[in-house]
């Protein structure tokens, strides 16, 4: 469960189901090159699976002290201390600069609150996956995930159907390039204004010189 800066709960009180974790790894195409962030990591199961099955590094953020201890213990038991880090803290205050994959299981209001942070901090190419709820204002690719019963392998349990939403946000560098584009346009406009001002001054100087020449001619006559 994750809380925002205001202290309101942003995420559900339950972890993602196991069948969703496997689907997430496939949908996000997690590899050993990835750094997976789980914002509201609960017991750390998703990060442990990413490390064990794909060789990825993981960072989990959990506001609840009990939950962070549970996740830390699970990581230790799995002997993944060198690959998975659990942070007891607020997702809104955790840097995401090195994230290549971000997993979110948050309420709609929690997702909305997190959007500015994601847009400001994520690098281009980062994959974001939201479980159950869409991120407002972002284009997504949605897949449905169905659980299978352990008693009857391969049989679909229609009561357990979940949705995962995959996103490819533009990232901070793309936003930065837009900023520099604006700077370039402003610089060009300033150059145009300066050229017009210089041209106007030259025309005034020529006009003044022309009047002085006519006056000298009149004096001679």
TrEMBL record:
InterPro entries xrefs: FAM173A/B, SAM-dependent_MTases_sf
Transmembrane residue ranges: 179-202
KW Transmembrane helix (keyword) present: yes
One MF annotation (Gene Ontology) recorded for this entry: protein-lysine N-methyltransferase activity
A Gene Ontology biological process term: methylation
Keywords attached to this entry: Membrane, Methyltransferase, S-adenosyl-L-methionine, Transferase, Transmembrane, Transmembrane helix
Top-level lineage group: Eukaryota
SUPFAM superfamilies in the record: S-adenosyl-L-methionine-dependent methyltransferases
Any one GO cellular component localisation term in the record: mitochondrion
Record has Transcription as a keyword: no
PANTHER family: METHYLTRANSFERASE DOMAIN-CONTAINING PROTEIN
Family named by the database record: Belongs to the ANT/ATPSC lysine N-methyltransferase family.
Protein name: Methyltransferase domain-containing protein
Organism expressing this protein natively: Ostreobium quekettii
């Amino acid at each position: 469960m994750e809380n925002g800066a205001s202290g309101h709960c942003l995420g559900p009180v339950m972890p993602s189901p196991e069948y969703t974790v496997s689907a997430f790894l496939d949908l996000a195409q997690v590899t050993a090159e990835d750094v997976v962030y789980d914002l509201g990591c609960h017991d750390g199961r998703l990060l442990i699976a990413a490390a064990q099955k794909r060789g990825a590094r993981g960072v989990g953020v959990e506001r609840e002290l009990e939950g962070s201890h549970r996740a830390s213990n699970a990581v230790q038991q799995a002997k993944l201390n060198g690959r998975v880090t659990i942070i007891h803290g607020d997702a809104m205050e955790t840097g995401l600069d090195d994230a290549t994959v971000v997993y979110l299981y948050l309420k709609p209001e929690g997702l909305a609150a997190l959007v500015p942070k994601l847009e400001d901090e994520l690098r281009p190419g980062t994959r974001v996956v939201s479980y159950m709820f869409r991120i407002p204002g972002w284009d997504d690719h949605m897949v449905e995930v169905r659980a299978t019963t352990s008693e009857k392998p391969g049989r679909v349990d229609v009561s357990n159907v979940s949705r995962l939403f995959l996103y490819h946000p533009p990232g901070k560098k793309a936003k930065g390039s837009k900023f520099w584009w604006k700077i370039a346009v402003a610089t060009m406009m300033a150059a145009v204004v300066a050229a017009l001002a210089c041209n106007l001054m030259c025309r005034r100087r020529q006009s003044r010189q022309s009047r002085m020449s006519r006056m000298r001619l009149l004096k001679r006559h």
